[in-house]
Queue: 2 jobs
Job 1
Amino acid sequence: MPPLRRPPTSRSIALPPRSGAVVADTDVLVVGGGPAGIGAALGAASAGAEVILAERYGFLGGNATAALVMPWMSFHTRRPQPPRLGDTSLMPSDHGIGEPVVAGKHIDVIERLIAEGGAMRPSPGTGYTVPFDPEIFKVVALDLLDEAGVCYLLHAFASGVLEPHDPKGVIFESKSGPLVVRARTIVDCTGDGDIAAAAGAPFEIGRAQDGLVQPMTLMFRMVGFDPAGFAGYVEERPDQWRSVHGLWELIEKASAAGELDLPREDLLFFATPHPGEVSVNSTRVTGALGIDAFDLTRAEQVSRWQMRQIAKFLTKHVPGFSDAYVAQSGVNIGVRETRRILGDYQLTGEDVLAARKFDDVIARGTYPVDIHNPTGKGTDLRTVPAGDAYDIPLRCLLPRDVEGLLTAGRCISGTHVAHSSYRVTPTAMATGQAAGVCAALAADGGRPPRQVGIDAVQTELRRQGADLR
Ligand SMILES: Cc1cc2nc3c(=O)[nH]c(=O)nc-3n(C[C@H](O)[C@H](O)[C@H](O)COP(=O)(O)OP(=O)(O)OC[C@H]3O[C@@H](n4cnc5c(N)ncnc54)[C@H](O)[C@@H]3O)c2cc1C
């Protein structure tokens, strides 16, 4: 059976009115338990708030666990090369790795992951990324929330708010029926800006010229991989970090023979903490929007076909993969970009590429502009000036036309180009922590987040170890 297609004409019917059980009143409600949500919940709890975090899945981590997005990208100035597969020896030192620019809760999570054997410390050998194990991340996230006194509700899909423009509470669909959590301040960490959009905040989608978003990717893990066989066969192209020379030729041959038919130019792999395992970031579905059920359905189908094709190609043709197999794919296809909620300031590509500074900085980023082509092959990669980082102002977390709400993570206020940089895991966690802190201070003072002074937010963030420079 084909996937259900969008009907050619839209019809609607009135739904029965209903009521929901009010299950909690809290200072801060964080919706979405991805990197931003975890950062927000920990930041708000450390600032003294009573916090509830609600998540649609039965585990935390967002893209990092549900979509198997690995590794944590580098958060150090001057972008290093990514790790060579299975190679933990020193990389060439002339990349001049600078300083880390994201600290605070993000480092606490990484340290705990390392202590639990679930991550590798960023180093020249990892290309300053953090390879991690998503299963260990799921448990560590729960441990950290428990220790911080954060209450969580899982299997709860947020479907609406109590009131537009000043939501005061969120409605969740659950196996127990509709549930309502009321809160003094809400932080939207859904990645898609579901709560802000439901509350009436304006938003943008896609690039300025045509509204197209970055493609989606179904990530998967292959085990039984032999790094020695692979590394002994290929060599890195000096001009191309995404592919390797011998592999490139095999891809071209298989594409010409019709064995590979992918809308991307190369195959991209990442090492994990486990030597016999590789994370494959190589499927690509364009023309699909991650907040459209019909697009998502088609994207899941197409990406799984691509995964099968790639796995067959690797095991048949690529040394090191002959005994490998797909051990796991994402619970869902990875969604890079959907709504960008418009806030009091919109961060631009120019801000990112000029490493611009703001007085109301609440987080910093240094990851390049990294736009996977929304229409097919190719990636637009532009680095932040060497040794430097850009600031993210608090105003990017304050949605226009709405009070009592902040955004964090990949749905904050920025252009398509800026988003392609700040969307990565470390920066998402940092904006999460900042939103959590501002939400806690707002709840404590009985005022909207906009009226919390930036000095108070920055002072508390610094106390929590955040790097604002
Ligand atoms: C294919 C792909 C590859 C990437 N590669 C890398 C990489 O190598 N390194 C890197 O650092 N970053 C990478 N990224 C970016 C990074 O993974 C994400 O952008 C990051 O996870 C953003 O964090 P977030 O918390 O804002 O959003 P998400 O991770 O999307 O988390 C949102 C959370 O909210 C939940 N949620 C959503 N809607 C609702 C709702 N209505 N009700 C309740 N819960 C809800 C979701 O289940 C999820 O847990 C990649 C992204 C993709 C898609």
Job 2
Amino acid sequence: MPGNILTDSKGRPVRYIRVSVTDRCNLRCRYCAPSAEFVSLLHSQVLSYEEIERVAAILAPFGVTSVRLTGGEPLVRKHIDRLIGSLARTSGIEDLSLTTNGILLAEHARALKEAGLLRVNVSLDSLKPDRFRWITNSPDKRRKENLGSVLEGLEEAQRVGLAPVKVNVVLMRGLNDDEVGDFVDLTREGNLEVRFIEFMPMGPNGFWNRDRVVPADEVIGRIMKSHPGLEHVGKSKGSGPAVLHRIPGHRGSIGFITPVSSHFCAHCNRVRLTADGKLRTCLFSDTETDLLPLIRGGASDEQILGTIRQALLQKPDGHRISARGALAACARTMSHIGG
Ligand code: SF4
């Protein structure tokens, strides 16, 4: 490993940073948003685009070549195409992607692509309008037809050439696991990568329980019943942990992300930067390092990098959510971390 490559406590190289550009969202997904009143950060507490660019530029020469923009919902933050443009021009950044709930994707896709975005992940947990509305619990009751906007966004993302276009489905037993077949059907004509994500305990909103987890092996078994030709084809493009399968004759592919039944911490390659400038070395560890005072306090790039290296030496070897009895694995909800 070249000496200057950023590694963590276990010598795992850090290749990938997930940056939450806002904690705000136009949805309130029941397993993500806090159960209590959602109090968003003040504008002054949120990293500016210039500050995000600076952190990304500090890390890129040390191997962190993949940047994912997340939220809350990143597309609710104004002029995000400007940030994407700067990151796309930042030397050393090779992969630039975004995770969105898709509601605003149709109207932004072309500008994002032209700014330099390469690919997009769309979080979508139901193809049934009423169930979609229930799961997403949208605060804006006037927006009757959010599912339609997401499906339009998926179309437009493919049309403008963002690739691959991935669909992230959090499978929850008894809530949406009866839609596995419908999501698989999306891969017949659509050049989509549909990924089934095991339901993780995130934050204290009490929506998670172990019985709602549908292990990937069970999902594969269900798909094999109707598609016995389902074949394993390897890893998904990008820095993510998804294991890909393909049904002969289908344009798209099917991925499985298994943080509960078969975690991938031994090969973890990521860190997270929250919207308020906290470095989170592990999704499930509440040990965070506040970079904001350094960034706004005149620290040099070397000092900021040194602080990040120190934080990585404290990175846990993995999560403990697979252990029986694990309930809420961390204090922050997903909407504050960016997933
Ligand atoms: S739980 Fe932590 S160590 Fe494991 S893959 Fe996620 S971020 Fe990495």
